[in-house]
Design a protein that fits this description.
Elements (H helix, E strand, L loop, with lengths): L12 H40 L9 E5 L6 H8 L3 E6 L9 H11 L1 H25 L10 E4 L12 E7 L8 H11 E12 L46 H11 E8 L10 H6 L5 H5 L2 E8 L9
Parallel strand pairs: 1-2, 1-4, 2-3, 4-5
Antiparallel strand pairs: 5-7, 6-7
Helix pairs in contact: 1-4, 3-4, 5-6
């Protein structure tokens, strides 16, 4: 009788962190240009969908990019087409490598985060921006791009001052989701819009383990599918995740906003959702497990600021 194949054991401690960062380096070199293409595709689709909701041109709009990240790619694309956009992040954001930038990140976000940002700038930044600039029909403008350190639940903008709030895979990392949505309802004009994309925690890639970045084309042979919802034997991921499910987000969005469109994004992992895993994860719907994320297009409710938190 053949003994059943044993599962790989999960590494611990320092070895686990080294494996994580080794995977990030490999994925960075392998997919740098893929990231640029994915970001440009998101931007194009966003413009088309916003046009369907009455925003025909991003030029001269006052916008905020919530969680712009160290790449600040969405802020740069919007800035380059004439949007008066401010990218905000809890990390010090600046496209150019300077001592002050890394010192600021180390003081506010810690040594590890500063080291990761330095590694990005040295290894990936230039080729990524070259690839993005080569895809766009317009030149990327870095000069005068506005990026500020700011928390999403405490926005330093005047009430009714923003035409458009955008975000890409950020809300799943926020510790105070309701605070952020409530703040957006305050700063967005009554006729303004959100275009917020959130990564589904319940999707196969929702645990944000780098091994499941591309589940359909590069499935992991080490980390089990949906490990973060099952035994969670490989918990080390690049960023903290709040673990919210889609219905939780919807309940809060509907408290402060009129939803104009709730758009599910691509499905992923269908071939990996075996009958055994489906039974094990019976508390989740198939849509939750297979839909990568959702986009919220919404306008603030007139009385949203009077809703108790």
């Amino acid at each position: 009788m053949t003994a059943p194949a044993s599962r790989p054991s999960a590494p611990t401690g320092l070895l686990r962190r080294l494996r994580l960062y080794g995977s990030m380096v490999r994925y960075g070199f392998a997919h740098n240009q893929d990231f640029a293409r994915e970001h440009w595709a998101f931007f194009q689709t966003m413009r088309e969908r916003l046009g369907e909701h009455g925003i025909a041109d991003l030029e001269r709009l006052r916008a905020v990019d919530v969680g712009c990240g160290k790449m600040m790619w969405l802020t740069l694309l919007m800035h380059s087409v004439g949007t008066r956009v401010t990218g905000i992040d809890t990390e010090w954001v600046e496209p150019n490598p300077t001592f002050g930038k890394y010192w600021g990140i180390m003081r506010s976000n810690g040594v590890e985060r500063a080291a990761r940002t330095l590694a990005w700038d040295l290894l990936y930044a230039s080729p990524y921006y070259r690839a993005l600039d080569g895809i766009t029909p317009f030149e990327l403008h870095f000069r005068d791009a506005d990026a500020r350190a700011m928390s999403a639940d405490d926005l330093d903008f005047e009430t009714d001052s923003i035409d458009l709030a955008v975000s890409h895979e950020v809300f799943e990392h926020l510790p105070d989701v309701e605070g952020a949505i409530r703040e957006l309802s305050r700063v967005i004009r009554p006729e303004g819009l959100t275009y917020v994309y959130t990564h589904n925690y319940t999707s196969i890639s929702g645990g944000h383990h780098i091994a499941w970045k591309y589940p359909d084309t590069e499935p992991s042979e080490i980390v089990p599918p949906w490990d973060h919802l099952r035994e969670n034997r490989f918990p080390d991921v690049p960023s903290w995740i709040n673990g919210w499910r889609e219905h939780q987000y919807r309940e809060v969005w509907e408290r402060y906003f009129e939803i104009e469109d709730w758009i599910p994004t691509d499905r992923e992992g269908e071939a990996l959702l075996t009958a055994e895993i489906r039974e094990e994860l019976a508390e989740y719907s198939e849509q939750e497990l297979l839909t990568k994320g959702f986009i919220v297009v919404a306008r603030p409710k007139a009385d949203s600021r009077r809703v108790d938190s």
